[in-house]
Amino acid sequence: MGLFLHAQSEKYTVKNLDMNTEYPHFGLMLVSDSKLIFTSFLLDAKGRLKRFQGNPILSILEGEVSENGAITNIKNIEIAPDENIKYITSATLSPDIKKLYLTTTTSDDFSEDNFQIKVGEFEAGVGWTHFETLSFCDPKYSYAHPTISMDGKTLYFTSNLKGGKETTRGGSDIFKVDILDDNSFSEPKNLGSKVNSYSKEMFPFVAADNTLYFASNRPNGYGGFDIYRSKMTAEGVFGKAEKLPKPINSPKDDFSLVMDSANKTGFLSSKRDGGKGADDVYYFSKI
């Protein structure tokens, strides 16, 4: 209860950004305090949707973060054409900027309803390439929304993974794996009932102080998906999740929160009233 009251005592300012259009912007991830990557539809030179087999192409873009939170100089993150990746729902870069992890639609080895996380590397003159599905991904389940701890040692993600002690409680839970020295991974571990619920948890992000932020549509929220946080204890375990106050949350979907290294400002996606279209990007700061 004390943590909840503490959250309610915090005050924030939230503003809609000029970068927003009628198209969705989500899957936010800070590369540094000066660069943000996000997911949106690709547009041609005339501002029209680029399509593949009749469907809009979802991909990742990057922009520069100004001191007042504006996102400028937005450009597409180049993925090698022969990778044939046409639908990306979220992505993150490793802290050393050498690896790109992304959520994409399934290959022939996965059912049509499942997503997978792939990792690739950058090749000059080619773009991001050599993508491989992460070794722990089981074709029977979906894996999405990767994010990496600041020290580069832990990968967090969402999944509907079932079976055994670490089975998913709701539609999707947040899991973690250790990133090992040989670029392999430990077995997925569910973050447990203090973080996960019998509803859906999505879009995790671990801040510089090891606080976990994520979205959930669990009961007793403001409406739709709301943003929660869970603070890591000295033992490395996440404590009971608390709902963030308004105006971070709204009666509509709020998700994809990311925080700067000083834990003072950040960005989130929201479908709240007064936006410009679908999911808009908002800049927030603590008062």
Describe this structure in words.
With 287 residues, the chain is mainly beta. It has one domain: TolB, C-terminal domain (Neuraminidase), CATH 2.120.10. 3% of the residues lie in helices and 43% in strands. It is built from 1 helix and 22 strands. It has one helix at 2-9; strands at 12-16, 26-32, 35-41, 51-52, 55-56, 58-65, 71-76, 88-93, 99-105, 115-123, 127-133, 143-148, 154-159, 173-178, 189-190, 201-206, 212-216, 226-230, 242-243, 254-259, 265-270, 280-286. The strands form 6 sheets. Strands 1-22-21-20 form a 4-stranded antiparallel beta sheet, with no helix packed on it. Strands 2-3-6-7 form a 4-stranded antiparallel beta sheet, with no helix packed on it. The protein has a 4-stranded antiparallel beta sheet with strand order 8-9-10-11, with no helix packed on it. Strand 16 and strand 17 form a beta hairpin. The radius of gyration is 18 Å and the shape is globular.
Task: Tell me the total number of β-strands.
Answer: 22
- Computed structural class: mainly beta
Strand content: 35-45%
Q: What's the tally of helices?
A: 1
Our measurement of the CA-to-CA distance between the termini, rounded to an integer number of angstroms, reads 23 Å
CATH architecture: 6 Propeller
The H-and-E topology, N to C, reads as: HEEEEEEEEEEEEEEEEEEEEEE
Total of domains: 1
Main CATH class:
Mainly Beta
CATH topology: Neuraminidase
Rg from alpha-carbon coordinates: 18 Å
How are the strands of the largest sheet arranged? 1-22-21-20
